[in-house]
Amino acid sequence: MGDPRCPVPPGYRVAGYRIGDQIGAGAWGSVYAAHGTGEPREVAVKFLGPARLSPGQRRTMAQIARSETRFSRRADHPHLIRTLAVVTVDDPAHQELDGAVALVMERAARSLQDVLAAARPRTAVPDADRLLAEVCAGLTHMHAAGWVHGDLKPGNVLLMPDGTAKLADFGLTAELEGTHAYAPPLGSPDHVPPEWWSERTGARGVALRPSADVWAFGVLTHQLLTGGLHPFLGATARARALAAQAYARGAAPLRLDDALPQRWRPVVAACLAADREERARVDLAALLPPAGGRGGLGGRGGQRSRGGSGDRRAVATRRGQRVGAVAGAGGLAAVAAVLLALAGAPEPTSAPPAADGSTPGPAVTAQPAGRPAVPSSGRPPSAGAIPAGSDVPAALRGPIEDAARRCPEPEITPVLIAAVLKAESGFDPQAARPESGEYGVAMWTPSVFNAWAQDGDHDGVKDYMDPADAIVSMGNYVCWLDQQFKHRGFTADLPALVAAGYRTSDKTVAEAGGVPERVRPHVTKVLGYLAEYGG
Ligand SMILES: Nc1ncnc2c1ncn2[C@@H]1O[C@H](COP(=O)(O)OP(=O)(O)OP(=O)(O)O)[C@@H](O)[C@H]1O
Fold first, then answer.
1. Does the pTM exceed 0.80?
2. Angle at 167 between CA 162 and CA 170, to 5 degrees
3. Which of 258, 342, 349, 517 is deepest in the core (most CB within 10 A)?
């Protein structure tokens, strides 16, 4: 096999960045530190191909580069590595680089693999609960957006200089087409599920399901909490994979290491369910922490701030708030509830997960982007539909319905989104409140919009003044708010909380224990419009 990695001369310039030292190299790419004048100045640049490849490798590399490019451009979440630019190197003078794809990313300090390399045997890595919650948040977001990561492992979880965990390496990431996606057959033997080994490789690769990520999350959790131990014993990755397959056939029981904390055992056992259908019902979102809970999972959530600088990338860290929770439809939910009760943990307070195994999240498209997903909550598409004779402008109805369809939460209906829009801007796409820095039909604060932006009309631009983008992004954000409130234990008046959260932030509402007094008149307006629309 030729070496597919790109040697890049020091000082080489790409996308306005000057390449420095090599950080590392994977099977298909080389990653370099780079320095530029933009923000951030210190970045990492990953070069993919095309040096010295056989025709077969070239095809695989092209597929990996396409995935990395496509997903990186669309990934927008506090726990996914942010890609700042993607360029194809056009430099015939450097043949080994000419045609390579260069991804300019925010630069991490190290990976979880590095952390594990320094871990004490049979001892959880520092801050393991928070790290797991953050990995879980990134993964949940990906699944909700209709993507499977496909290569979750410690080496692909990067830690930023402030310690935040972010998922990286989207080379095997694939978009769901119904129940599964396709990716090159290149998973990491220690983290692919047992059924992966007997999957047929077709022209488009192997079938990949979200349940594969759930398995990988189970392995990773076991590793982080036991100082790196794999849940299946064996001296080599091949031996461990065979042990996992024996377990899946029912030839051996699951033997989690004694060092794995009691409260995590049901979580890991559920993620490592031998039956992939059963695994698919694990609700990763339920692992995310609510406020005021107790137990071991901590985490971060993006927080939307509306006033002043309006920097919604500010994150609230809540540690030690809740034990890991597993929930699922049907049998698994009951089993998990019993296990959690035995572990002394509170039962999940969030809404029941989707019966089809999909996990709720801020942006839900369980289908390829551009095609609306059927809500996994089972909500019929017409529930909460905008009445024909209402004042909702015809031009906004499509984006409003699209935004609602992308969210599995039953409260996020077209009429709720319409009611919030009416209260925010009176449906005026040109609305502007410069004194508070809010613009467009959804009254986005630009910096806040950047963190939640979706390209609603698929024109390649995310623009808060474009109603399609503004509304679909708003749907993304209110969906996340709704889920946050449920995870925090709120069960009543969710539309009011969502309207209040949109005007303030999830944290402000949580701290007030409900609708804060100062936004009550606004929320009353939203609820009035909602009633008018029959919601
Ligand atoms: N944005 C980044 N910031 C800092 N380091 C990074 C970044 N992206 C990747 N790295 C590091 O660069 C190295 C190579 O990464 P790469 O994604 O190419 O391969 P890998 O994940 O290690 O291996 P494989 O390709 O086999 O999965 C890894 O050590 C990784 O931690």
1. no
2. 140
3. 349
